[in-house]
Amino acid sequence: MAENEKIIEIEVLRYRPEQDKEPVLQTYKVPFTDDMSVLQGLQYIKDYLDGTVSFRWSCRMAICGSCGMMIDGKPKLSCKTFLRDYYPGGLRVEALAHLPIERDLVVDATDFVTKLESIKPYIIPKEPRALEQGEYLQTPQQRDMYEQFSSCINCMLCYAACPQYGLNPKFTGPGILALMHRYNADSRDGGQAERNELGYADEGYWGCTAVGYCSEVCPKGVDPANAINQNKMNSAINYFTRFVTPGGAGK
Amino acid sequence: MSNRRPYVRSMDGWWKRDPYFIRYMAREVTAVFVALYAIVLLFGLVRLGQGEAAFNGWLQYLKTPWMLVFHLIVLAVFCYHTWSWFNIMPKTMPIIFMGGKRLQPGTITGTGLAASVVACLAVLFIVRGMS
Ligand code: SF4
Ligand code: FES
Q1: C-alpha pair distances (Å), A135 with each of A125, A130, A150, A191, A245
Q2: Per-residue pLDDT at B102
């Protein structure tokens, strides 16, 4: 490493289910350079100081969504956050808030993945179309209606930012609801009625109280709070008209 | 047998964990003051129904020092209320295009705030004209 090497203290919230009754903090002194991310700091710990520290990562370039953790209390991608910004004070890393800790910085993502599957995150074509009929056409403006919501990388930072999810894990939550909106808002899609059943439920859009922190922490500018709250109006209209319109979706 | 023992952390005192949550809670609390003030105004309406003397009594009561202090507090709270709700308003609106360009959140918030300032000035103006 370069000679202008500095040392930073990284506090890691450890949890080893076979030995720890509850999570405990452990501090490591890590030499670092200005171009090192928090993820690289953890990799240094694992390679040179303590091989038992567990954490997830893959792309180390903010696209796979696996390295999310609380860094000094804020949900962040550790590969996109730099150690130099915490020097000389040091930093604390913890598993993503509101999610069960599996081990150290690794959370249990079962709930997220189950919900992800449940909302049918794929285009359900409006009308069947034969191959000879060619592709589905879309104007740039039609694309703009869903494009930002399609940028989600499933990092779950928004779940760690959402107190409503922390208080009631039944709430579908920001990222998944944003993805639901992404498909519903696609001009080629005709699956709204199927998805609205979940969206209009108590655990759907209405579980959100517009805290707005999800949109603040999202590393991809998805703005889940917007995806959710713009649907409340339609949901309310549906609620009052479902008695008069046959087949009105939702509960 | 699995050695899994996922640990669920407590949510106790969650709103103190992040300044963002404190601001959110402050926004929610302002709604209580709005309800409180609605009661004050409703009371005025009841007094109005009871005749001129009763209504003037209510007006006099509003001018007592305690009520003036209350009004100052409520004014400050309402300013925060207005700002915080218009701040979140862009999140509640669908994506809007105007002249081929996407309407920016700042424009929505700014328009809302401007509208509330204009409405306040209009009310002040009307009341001044009447007295
Ligand atoms: S909406 Fe944003 S914060 Fe939430 S999972 Fe997707 S990319 Fe991550
Ligand atoms: S390692 Fe892939 S997002 Fe950070």
Answers
A1: 12, 9, 20, 18, 33
A2: 87
| Ligand 1 center from residue A113 Cα (angstroms) | 13
Confidence band, pLDDT 50/70/90 cuts, at residue B97: confident
Which residue, A107, A134, A157, sits at the end of a domain? A107
Domain B14-130 fold is 3 helical TM bundles of succinate and fumarate reductases (1.20.1300)
ipTM: 0.88
Q: What is the pTM assigned to this prediction?
A: 0.90
- Residue A207 tokens read as 């579980």
What CA–CA distance (Å, rounded) separates A25 from A94?
Answer: 9
Contact B18/A144, CB-based, under 8 Å?
no
Across the interface, of A22, A74, A226, the residue whose CB is closest to B7 is A22
Tell me: do A83 and A55 sit in the same domain: yes
Beta bridge partners, A12, equal A26, A93
Q: β-strand A6-14 against A24-32: which pairing, if any?
A: antiparallel
The answer to the question of residue A246 being in a domain is: no
